[in-house]
Amino acid sequence: MDLFSSALPDYAELFAFTNFSFLHGASHGEELVLRAAQLGYSGLAIIQYIYRKYGRDRAAIAAAVSTYRPRGALRETGKALGIDPQIVDKVAKSHQWFDHSQDLLRRFEESGLDPANPLITLWAKLAAEILNFPRHLSQHSGGFVISRGKLTRLVPVENAAMADRSAIQWDKDDLEALGLLKIDVLALGMLSAIRRTLDIVSEQRGERVEMQDIPPEDPETYEMISQADTVGVFQIESRAQMSMLPRMQPRTFYDLVIEVAIVRPGPIQGGAVHPYLRRRQALSR
Hints:
Shape: flat
Number of helices: 13
Largest sheet: 5 strands, mixed
Strand order of the largest sheet: 3-4-1-2-5
Low-confidence stretches: 1-26
Number of strands: 5
């Protein structure tokens, strides 16, 4: 069903609660869909509702700038230099997300290449130069800027790929630097997944199981996490997190706090990841 068709009736502005917080203005997706059906609406398109309510001249979604990561930089520059694709793939896969630019030559050597070779030196140099450079401009998942007057007087705006949508050409950091307010219209499907899981467990056990009934420090759960068996697990399901988990071997909730905090641009660019891992592994011995 096309939720964005102009043939749809007016959109409903729904008010609800989450099942896991006291905040207003959000709820599980299926609850909103059910409520829309009760009101006689054929579907929900909250983002499109914002465009219609405030107008495309006053509302637009922020951009998200995709930048070159180490593996992408190695692949792009290696391809440009005409290096064998198998060698490029081997070197790129050996590079970890938390490696610094100075680690490039060491990774080449570990892959069986001679760092003194002029071509390899040039490859490392070019890859290091384009690290964190913009690769392409995409759209934020739901960050809106809404203005009193014409938005084009404040920021550059372009048509989005989807019909009837506008996108700002600046990302959240640019907007923050200018002091412009970004309003996030986001949905966490994981909240629905948690609730469905609790419903299934409650049905199987014949008694109601709530979030507070989940064991706080379950060893088997941490064993799965330490093996990076975390597909679909909120906050630790990204490739970067999954590559870090076997090295961290989290065994407590606080370990997970550190895990999530350290997989961030600040610790990575500051060179804090390797020293922390060495210190942690030494203490565990």
